[in-house]
Write a structure and sequence with these properties.
Elements (H helix, E strand, L loop, with lengths): L7 E12 L5 E25 L2 E13 L9 E4 L2 E10 L5 E9 L3
């Protein structure tokens, strides 16, 4: 994959497993690292929920292939948080196409 289209620097966020002071396993939401991506916004929609208008934007985000990107993680770019719905790998395993939706940041 050529580096030219990957012009958006994003922060990948997800759950980090650790241990508390008593040695019990914990999961906290945190940064998993930066990556370069190409963000395409093909569609959006407005809907009413709880008597308020809501806006949801669907995005296709292309990144270099990684094994550690899973559904449920977030990519944050310019204050906008995208939840990864489905990471789809190409046949050559050189790129991941992330099907995402905008969400409120955690």
């Amino acid at each position: 994959m050529r580096a030219g289209p990957l012009r958006h620097c994003c922060m990948r966020r997800g759950y980090i497993e650790g241990k508390d002071a008593l040695g019990q396993p914990t999961k906290t939401w945190g940064d998993l690292g930066k990556l370069w991506a190409e963000i395409n916004i093909p569609s959006g929609r407005m809907y009413e929920a709880a008597s308020q208008m809501q806006v949801q934007v669907s995005a296709e985000i292309n990144i270099r292939y990684r094994k550690d990107v899973v559904a449920g993680q977030h990519l944050v770019h310019d204050g906008i948080s995208y939840e990864i719905v489905a990471p789809l790998a190409t046949n050559q395993r050189d790129m991941l196409k992330l099907m995402c939706k905008t969400v409120k940041p955690k």
